[in-house]
Amino acid sequence: MARDQRIEPGVEELWTEFHDCVNVTSDQLRTWLLTQGSGEAAFGADPSMDLPEPGRSILAIKGKRKVDLTGEDIATMRDTVAEVRRLLAARTATGVTDEDWRHSLLDLGHDPLADR
Prior knowledge:
The chain is mainly alpha-helical. The protein has five helices and no strands. InterPro entries: DUF3140.
């Protein structure tokens, strides 16, 4: 079976949308998630395994090839695209300087300042 035949219909478009929405590098996302999880009680004994969700799943997807995606990965990609779009549409009057709004997007791998 050819590789392209294993890709679910619509996954190609979703893959592109996901990577457009998740506009930070894997290293940037990992650093952000570690920063977010660095609170006193945030990490257990193995911090590399305790990255906050959904960021951990998003980071794992960024390291995969399309043909290696699972059903759970595809659901995460759909949810991520929808949530990034929702947050961007709900942008507050203070814009990208609104820390909570920006941090919510960064948790999903989207930096609104990168679009400037």
